TrEMBL record:
Pfam families: Peptidase_S26. Keywords: Hydrolase, Membrane, Protease, Transmembrane, Transmembrane helix. Its EC number is 3.4.21.89. One of its GO terms (molecular function) is signal peptidase activity. GO terms for cellular component: plasma membrane. The active site is at residues 42, 85. The lineage of its organism: Bacteria, Bacillati, Bacillota, Clostridia, Neomoorellales. PANTHER family: CHLOROPLAST PROCESSING PEPTIDASE (PTHR43390:SF1), SIGNAL PEPTIDASE I (PTHR43390). Residues 12-166 form the Peptidase S26 domain. This is Signal peptidase I. Belongs to the peptidase S26 family.
Amino acid sequence: MKGNQRLWHNLTEILQTVAIALMLSFIIRLFLFQPFYIPSSSMEPTLRPGDRILVNKFIYHFQKPRRGDVIVFRFPLDPQRDFIKRIIAFGGETLEVKNNQVFIDGRKLEEPYLPPDIRFGNYGPVTIPEGYYFVMGDNRSHSQDSRFWGPLNRKYIIGKAVLIFWPWFRAGLIR
């Protein structure tokens, strides 16, 4: 190959590689995993302001959301904003908060992820409509959640928060 042909060949290979990498990253972000930034303290101590997390966007195509899952969703009152909370109750269940404890259909919900001295008052009882979820922040005294804006329709769920990847010293699975 002559000098100009070799240069053109190398440039074409580089452009093809960059195009494939961009296309793969777009597909991964759109359908599989997406990074999110935690801007508030509503999920402390599980997540802290400034944490960067990875959300699995395809898992709920294969399984239903589970109680205790930390999810990212579009805020129902302003779908341009993303929120993150924990699933507490499902459609058809009755939820009540008494003396800083959550009861589902009259049974106390064990919540080992909450700080021991947290205070979040009383609420309900409310029955969750089918196809909806009741979500709450782990930092309940500083969380705007289903207690304030109602149950979350399934259609707003983006995915399950699975991993903290930044800061590096807090990296790990989200429980």
